[in-house]
């Protein structure tokens, strides 16, 4: 590995660090409207492309809903089999371990087992999976039956193809429910948007809604996040993959960002 390459990588990480902290401080000090309190008393559906996005992006909101006596529905679309690389041959074990982690993380938040729904679609090709008419119809039927008042999907600023596919499917679900005479609200939550496009979030400050966790809520969310990111958590390995330290740090913050689609 050449010195020039190492310098280039170091420069990239420094720029990334600076832009993420600019975004974080902008969010901290800007007068961002809070997420409406009415949401926690309504039927909430969180659509997560992978087993961990639900905690990173919406852990605080899920917890607040549960505290209000209103269990949300959390849907995990893919099996998460590619978290350690597409080349791995032990994918069945990876899926099994990630199931355990999600059970542990959502239990830490207080989510009931019957409100956690897994569809085990193929990780990495969610766009193709959702394009399958029979699978799409099955998903639509199941999620419509939950009659959500609010649908939360990952922000399209996350770049990940699976996140974009989950966002698209959430939009399809919303539009289908509107066609049926329902009126759910569609919201974006931020997972990889923080890491991939922090300055794009700053540009959206006027449209962002801030959710601030109480001290108790923050401590509970940290326990759920740690289930996914600490190797000593239940399995002794990073079954969710080696996540960038900056990414993990921002999701250990006591704030979450949302914006209306």
Automatic annotation (TrEMBL):
GO terms for molecular function: hydrolase activity, acting on carbon-nitrogen (but not peptide) bonds, in linear amides. Pfam families: PIG-L. It comes from the Bacteria. SUPFAM superfamilies: LmbE-like (SSF102588). This is PIG-L family deacetylase. It comes from Segatella copri. The lineage of its organism: Bacteria, Pseudomonadati, Bacteroidota, Bacteroidia, Bacteroidales.
